[in-house]
Design a protein that fits this description.
With about 270 residues, the chain is of the alpha+beta class. Among the domains are: about 15-100, Beta Barrel (OB fold (Dihydrolipoamide Acetyltransferase, E2P)), CATH 2.40.50.320; about 150-235 and about 245-255, OB fold (Dihydrolipoamide Acetyltransferase, E2P) (Beta Barrel). The chain is about 20% helix and about 40% strand. It contains three helices and 13 strands. The strands form two sheets. A seven-stranded mixed β-sheet has the order 9-8-7-12-13-10-11, with no helix packed on it. It is globular, with a radius of gyration of 24 Å.
């Protein structure tokens, strides 16, 4: 019996040696070398606190600053970051770098909760001295209303289940990737091969078709389709939907978690 099991175990070890699952680590950025595309962080968290981690930045790595897309210029030493990486040929390859910007995110959230400033009453126009002919409307089809994109196609570079947020990458005119950060409301519909599924079944790297709408001034993915089949039919109500309190509460809790983590990193002694 032992003679049969040992070769199978050896095959499993050899196969597993070539695979590296994606993982995350948080810490404080201590150095970024733009020429070598290399970043070093002082890790935080149980089991890794006080250890130095070195990553090579992937050529297609996504960098986010708070709730917005960032650039390598945001990789400033001293910033708290979360790095998603894979291991390849003995190196850690950073595929996503999220730079925490708690104060900026809180300010945006507060700005979104403030009521709009009252608009001054319109001043009645003076009667025209001479009636001029109306300017004719230029020919051509009427475009869709702003804030609605039906069927944006791209690759899911980041899928954040807790924050309910995705980063969709699509090809730009110059051949490079352009990114858009989208909130995913709780009423968003997710389709896989023509069947409805849950949001947490989406995986980074999948090609997706997304319906983008503007809700309360924020770009939202209201429908996501992966695999075979397209987006579900769009349904609209005559009454505008009220703001989703649960989604705002989840976002506020996520921000509070980031604040507590930064305070823990500054106040807790190194172990």
């Amino acid at each position: 019996m032992t003679a049969k099991v040992w070769p199978l175990a050896l095959v499993g070890v050899l196969i597993g040696a070539g695979l590296a699952a994606a993982a995350d680590v948080r810490g404080v950025l201590t150095r970024y070398d733009a020429d070598k595309k290399e970043l070093v962080i002082d890790a935080r968290g149980p089991g890794v606190r006080g250890t130095s981690w070195t990553f090579r930045l992937a050529s297609d790595a996504a960098i986010t600053l708070g709730q917005e897309m960032g650039t390598t210029a945001d990789l400033v030493p001293g910033k708290h970051v979360r790095v998603s990486y894979t291991e390849r040929d003995g190196q850690r390859i950073a595929t996503t770098v999220h730079v925490f910007a708690v104060l900026k995110t809180l300010q945006k959230l507060l700005d979104g909760l403030q009521p709009p400033a009252p608009q001054p009453a319109p001043v009645p126009a003076a009667p025209p001295v001479e009636q001029l002919p109306a300017t004719p409307r230029p020919p051509g089809p009427v475009g869709k209303a702003p804030g609605l994109v039906e069927g944006q196609v791209g690759v899911l570079r980041r899928v954040a289940y807790t924050e309910r947020e995705i980063i969709l990458a699509s090809a730009a005119a110059d051949g490079k990737e352009s990114y858009v950060v989208l909130a995913v409301p709780v009423d968003a519909r997710v389709m896989r091969d023509g069947k409805e599924t849950a949001f947490d079944t989406l995986k980074e790297g999948e090609r997706a078709t997304v319906r983008i709408e503007s809700r309360n001034g924020k770009a939202c993915a209201t429908a996501i389709a992966v695999g075979q089949g397209g987006l579900p039919p769009q349904t609209r109500s005559a009454v505008p939907a009220a703001p989703n309190c649960f989604a705002e509460a989840r976002r506020a809790l996520a921000i509070a978690d980031q604040v507590l983590e930064q305070l823990q990193g500054r106040l807790a002694p190194d172990r």
